[in-house]
Amino acid sequence: MAIVSVDGVRIEISIALVQDLAPGDYVLVHVGFALAKIDAAEARRTLKLLQELGRAGLETNS
Length: 62
Prior knowledge:
This protein is an alpha+beta fold and about 60 residues long.
């Protein structure tokens, strides 16, 4: 198990599916499980995309 932070929200996840993780690594998380280790650039791109999708969803529901 590990604690991760996503946009400042800290949650506990399972890291059983991903090998060779160390503090500070970035992981792709889905329903409480780390699915893959990703590099910092990919993490930034993914977070940016999710933020854009969130804004787009707010605009269509307004």
